[in-house]
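for the record, two folds in this file. i put them one after another cuz i was lazy. first one right below, seq on top, structure tokens after. the second one comes after a little note so u can tell where it starts
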Amino acid sequence: MDYNLRIGGLTRGIVCDIRDDGTLSARVDGELFEVRYRVISSNQIHLEIDGAGYNVYLADDPTGRIINLGGTSYLVQDADSLAQGRSRRRGPLEIPQEVTPPMPSVVVRILVAAGDPVEKGQGVVVVSAMKMETTLMAPFGGRVHSINVKEGDKVMPGQILVDIEKQEEEVTACQEELSR
């Protein structure tokens, strides 16, 4: 399959041949790579390239996918879609609805309690991965319904750490935006 991907601000041409035996050939800007791969989960893949092993973590983003490789995160986008000017309009399913870590992490601090009001962008949980702390934010304004973890818990991408009930005015604003 041929791909044109925008990675870290650069567009790369990639030709990929994925085989059923857990291997693939990838030609990136003309350079050939033979890769062994193993899917660990829907958010993690283990790659072996030239004898070196890499754990790759994946997370969805409204504009593409976040790929974390060796502690560095990259936004990967379909360059062909970007070039065609397809500005994806955010619908209610594309707005983040959960507080979830981008990679396997440990909960360091919980910044809110059940029943607390929160504003969009307010920090709710601090997680640590690879000696780096990240504050996870409320995706919208509302009230904390429940905290699903405690400090010291090991968490995975996709695991919902904090449930937030959306404020009614946020719901109305989303509905108005969609009707335009």
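(here's the note) second protein begins now
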Amino acid sequence: MGIQNAIAGFITFITRETATFFSNVGLLELSPFQIVIDVLLVSIIFYFIFLLIKGTRAFHIVLGLIIIAILFIVSKIMSLFAMGWLLDRFLTLVIVAIPIIFQQELRRGLEKLGQTKLRKKQQKKAVDTMIQNIVEACEELSRRKKGALIVFKQEVSLEEYAGTGIQLDAKVSRELLLSIFGAKMPLHDGAVIIEDSKIIAASCLLPHSATSASEKLGTRHKAALGMSELTDAKVIIISEETGRMSFVSDGEMERVKGEDLNRILSKLLKKE
């Protein structure tokens, strides 16, 4: 009986809300054309939001909020006072916290809305230049057998690792990368972290992988694997012993050459 009452209550709730919606539409005396435009614009907005958060951690947060909202509706239908009170307070807190929770996604969405074709061309050219600088620097370091560790931030914050190094906030360039890794300079040891086309820090300490597969690897390779296992960051490694270049993604390491690195970075940095 309890389940039947809950289902009946849910159907009654949906019917009542639908009737109220159409009643309000009737009171507004909107034309069919206005209704179609209204629904179409709302659909486009939701579609844009879906594309914006698809594949990011925000997507899972939204799913969690939807589940909580469904529980809230069920608690109202079944008159669950304690659950309804708790979820009501929680949802109020979430609404206030949304700008903070989705700060990165909101910023990215507003940037996309304000982008023009000229702006996109300029950004594409800047990314192409950065990729060329990184590939050229890596090939040069590989020829000279100079070890290097270059980390590319994705969705997961790397602030705790950037905080262990020297803050730079510098534009990515071939010359700067060669200066950092090309000689026994103070910033030579550790990793460089790149975020939003800038080197935010150098000489950063990374966590080492503790898997059995990493036991025979060198320090840089262990650090790259450890970073990839704990975050979604992508990492370039150049071996100081052999000069070989490797790329680490999602806990997997592959040996690469200059042309492979160009292709990988183009896919990685141009995906947006």
